[in-house]
C-alpha cells in the first residue's frame, strides 16, 4: 500500500526573541504566571523580510535540501496559514514564486492550528493517487501582526514561525498509518479572528454587516471604519478552549489509535501542537505516554498555530530523536474549532 512519507523537514524562525520579562512591561502579567500557566518563556516576532511567505519559503528550502528534492520536482504546495501577508495571491503561490517551483500547483488551507495535519492528510491522499509526486506541506504564521498587544489573555501566548515537510509516496510500510480530522463550527465563537480591517464594509465587520446601500455616500466612518475593536485580533475564551482542547484531542487520539490497531504506550514520540504545556502533559497521562516522549518546544516559540507541528517535526528530526520505524503521533486543536490526530511510521 502506498503511503505518504515525510522525506525531509525544515523550519524557519524569525530572529527577534520577545521574552516574558519584556511582556511584563507591556501588560499586567508576570514571567511566573506565563511560565506556570502555559510553559512559554519566549516567542519569536517577525520583522521586515520575515513575512509569512518568506519564512515559509525558507522552511521549504531546508525541507527540500534534506529530502534531496529540487523545486522543479515539487508537484503541489499546500500552506496552512491564517496570517499570510496577502489574501490573493495565496501564501502558497508566493512560496512557489520564491522557491521557483515552476511545475507545482499551489494553494492555502485555513484550519487554524490543525492546518498542517489537514495538509498532511491531503498530501497522503495525493500520493496514494500519484506515488511519484513530491508535495510540500507547510505551516506558517505571523501571529504577532494579529494579536492585540493590550490583551494579556492572548498576547503572551502567540509567536511567529514556519515549518515544512516534503511528502512522497512509499510502499515499504512507512508513512501515514491513520488520520482522524474533525471540525465543529458551532464552537467558533470561543476562539476567532475576524477578517482584517478593510475599506470593504462586508469585510470590515462581518459579524455586523451594514448594507452599503444605506449609505448615500461611501463613508467609512459611518460604516464603522477604522475601528480598533472590530475583532480582527485573535480573541479567545481561554478556559473554555482549554477544556474542549483536552477532550477533543483525547477523543481523536483514541480513534486514530484504534484505526491503526495501536495503544498509547506503543507510541515512540508525540509531536503535538504546542498551545499549553499543561494540555500536553494532561494528554500524555490520559493516553499512557510518558512526558519524556512528548516533544516540547513551546518554551522557545509559544503557540505558532499552523507552524507548531511542522517545527516540532523538524526539530525532533534534526536532533536525531526520530528513528526509522518509530511510531509518531501528532495532534492539534485550533479555532473553528478544528482538531485531529495522525499516526506516522517514521
Ligand atoms: O492553539 C489554539 C488553542 N488554544 C489553546 O489551546 C489555549 C487553551 N487555553 C489555555 O491555554 C489557557 O486557558 C490560558 C493559558 C489561555 C489561560 O490559563 P488559565 O489557567 O485557563 O487561566 P484563566 O483564563 O482561567 O485565567 C485565570 C486568571 C484570570 O484572573 P482572575 O479572573 O482569576 O482574577 C485571568 O485574568 O489569570 C488571569 N490572566 C493572567 N494573569 C497574568 C489571564 N492572562 C494572564 C496573564 N498574566 N497573561
Share of residues in helices: 25-40%
Low-confidence residue ranges: 204-210, 215-228
| Total number of domains | 1
Q: Specify the CATH class.
A: Alpha Beta
Radius of gyration from the alpha-carbon trace, in angstroms: 20 Å
Q: What number is the mean pLDDT?
A: 91
Q: Please indicate the percent range of residues in DSSP E strands (runs of 2 or more).
A: 15-25%
Strand neighbour order, sheet with most strands: 1-7-6-4-5
CATH architecture: 3-Layer(aba) Sandwich
SSE class = alpha/beta
User: What small molecules does this complex bind?
Assistant: oxa(dethia)-CoA
The SSE order reads: EEHHEHEHEHEHEEEHEHEHHHEE
What overall form do the CA principal axes indicate?
A: globular
End-to-end distance: 16 Å
Gist of the model:
The protein is of the alpha/beta class.
List its traits.
single chain; 346 residues; alpha/beta; Peroxisomal Thiolase, Chain A, domain 1; five-stranded mixed beta sheet; four-stranded mixed beta sheet; 11 helices; 13 strands; 23% strand; binds oxa(dethia)-CoA
Write the layout of secondary structure elements.
Elements: E1 3-12, E2 16-19, H1 20-24, H2 31-38, E3 42-45, H3 52-67, E4 74-80, H4 91-99, E5 105-109, H5 115-129, E6 134-142, H6 152-155, E7 160-170, E8 175-183, E9 191-192, H7 201-204, E10 235-236, H8 238-260, E11 269-270, H9 277-287, H10 298-301, H11 308-318, E12 327-334, E13 338-345
Parallel strand pairs: 4-5, 4-6, 11-12
Antiparallel strand pairs: 1-7, 2-3, 6-7, 8-13, 9-10, 12-13
This protein binds oxa(dethia)-CoA (UT7).
Residues 29, 33-34, 37-38, 113, 152-153, 156, 238-239, 241-242, 245, 275-276, 279, 303, 333-334 line the site of oxa(dethia)-CoA (UT7).
